[in-house]
Amino acid sequence: MDPISPDRSAVDSLVTIQQAARLLDLPPATLRAWERRFGVPQPRRAANGYRLYSRTDLEVLRRLKSRTDGGVRIGSAIETLPPPAALESIEPDGLRYRLAEAILRLDERQASLALREALVLHPVETVLGSVVEPMLQWIGEEWQAGRLSVGVEHFASALFVRQLVALYLAAPDPWRPGRALAACVAGDQHEIGLLALSVALRRRGWDVRIFGADLPFDALGQAAAILRPTVILLSATRTLDGTMLAAIGELARHLAPTAPEIVLGGRAVHGQQAALDGATVLDAGLDQALVALETILVRRAHARPNR
User: Fold this and answer.
1) For residue 124, what are the CA distances in angstroms to 92, 147, 159, 201?
2) Which residues are CB-neighbours of 262 under 8 A, at least 6 positions away?
């Protein structure tokens, strides 16, 4: 995954001229006229020759429509447009590009600015799924391949942890039934993915208690006995050996009377479902993981008797 290249999913966001016209409340003929006379915007062309408009194209057209609706002539409105790079930089792809460049330069100010702008311009869930998650994947792959220094990896991790903790603390008080206990398995120090998922759950009203990195299994069992969670969410990003698998199975059996569902996620869980006894493997990206976890939380919360 290269965060500097456009996201492949961007192709899915292209719209036809008819769709663009409906979104903007502009006649298709006007879009063609602006393109023919002023060269703005310059949509892509499908194999059949049809125009395809990107999110940046739509932003250009929204700005032009706003100016012309206010009485500004189209020629003058076009002269006041910011450069294309400035418009592209407000989309998740552009923000991810800026963030990657700043991280590689160890430029905390610009990296923090890119993240803050992303959160101002887009919903938190969009930033988590389209900026943070791809960046984490890229950083992990580059570090493992030896193309990224330990210093850059630590710099990026600290940056994301600070921002995600702030978002977690800023989330509204929980209002939905059930509770999730979230932690990294013993020996695992990589908590960013877990934090991102916890932030998304908190913003949707779920009570998530984060215990962070490297939580020993005995401490996890003690916390679960006190909090009596609906779900225990464990993250394993590096290794998941036989000893850990056995400890998770033992934890599930130990907590069986209180009936929490143990859900295991992270890169290390791929293909481990058959080896786990009494736990659910969540092998998916953030968006899919969020849907799956909410489904589990709803099912388990309503299945529990009132205390």
Assistant:
1) 12, 30, 16, 11
2) 231, 232, 234, 248, 251, 252, 255, 278, 279, 280
Half-sphere exposure of 277 (CA within 13 A, CB side): 15
| 212/146 Cα distance (integer angstroms) | 26
Sheet holding 44-45, edge to edge: 15-16, 51-53, 44-45
Q: How far is the C-alpha of 205 from the C-alpha of 191, rounded, in Å?
A: 21
Contact present, 122 and 94 (Cβ < 8 Å): no
Strands 44-45 and 179-184: unpaired
CB 180 within 8 A of CB 233: yes
Residues β-bridged to residue 51: 45
Sheet-wide strand order for 231-235: 207-212, 179-184, 231-235, 261-265, 279-282
Pairwise CA distance, residues 221 & 210, whole Å:
14
Helices (H), the chain: 17-24, 28-38, 55-69, 74-79, 84-88, 92-104, 108-121, 124-127, 133-144, 150-170, 192-203, 217-227, 242-254, 286-303
| Greatest pairwise CA separation for the chain in angstroms | 73
Q: Which two tokens stand for residue 168?
A: 């977690």
Read off the pLDDT of residues 207-242 as tens digits, 9 standing for 90 and up. 999 999 889 988 988 998 899 899 999 998 877 777
Query: pLDDT > 90: what percent of the chain?
Result: 26
In the chain, which stretches have pLDDT less than 50?
Answer: 1, 4-12, 306-307
Interval 62-88: pLDDT, tens: 888 888 888 889 988 888 777 665 555
In this structure, the number of other CB atoms found within 10 A of the CB of residue 263 comes to 22
Cα distance between residue 31 and residue 141, in whole Å: 42
Q: What is the pTM of this model?
A: 0.68
